[in-house]
Amino acid sequence: MSKPTHAGLPSNRSKLLQTALSVIDGYNSWSLSEIASPRTKDCTQQCHPMSLKGPLYTSPEEYCEYYKTMIPLFRNFKMEVIGYAEDQTQNKVIFHAMATAETDVGPYENEFVWMIQTTQDQDKVCGIREFLDSAYTVDFLKKMWERMQEEGKTTWG
């Protein structure tokens, strides 16, 4: 699997941008330990818009307990950053990204905006607000759920 180049980012990256990018790189590794690695022990994460009713996860462990059910459903997952903004005084980075993967119901292609908050020293991520294409997500998850039911599965993963 080729590593995304993040063409929308400069090659000379600030510490803040590097720390925030470690979140995206964790997903590109498709490893729960790498997804959790850049986060503080009380890092929060929530999926938006609110119409998706995404729960607020209050630790990497809690989030990974949920996300481990997603790992087997996607293959060759890649997230490519195509734009960003960073605020050094607020320790925040916003990424515009596209994600692709292979699944049993066909290709996955979704658009994301990630709002990432780091600690004051910019060493760790302490908050993530993830926005995605809600219409696409609802439709795609419905297809995945239907396929799983056809296979006799009653839970994700």
TrEMBL record:
<dbReference type="InterPro" id="IPR032710">
    <property type="entry name" value="NTF2-like_dom_sf"/>
</dbReference>
<protein>
    <recommendedName>
        <fullName>SnoaL-like domain-containing protein</fullName>
    </recommendedName>
</protein>
<dbReference type="InterPro" id="IPR050977">
    <property type="entry name" value="Fungal_Meroterpenoid_Isomerase"/>
</dbReference>
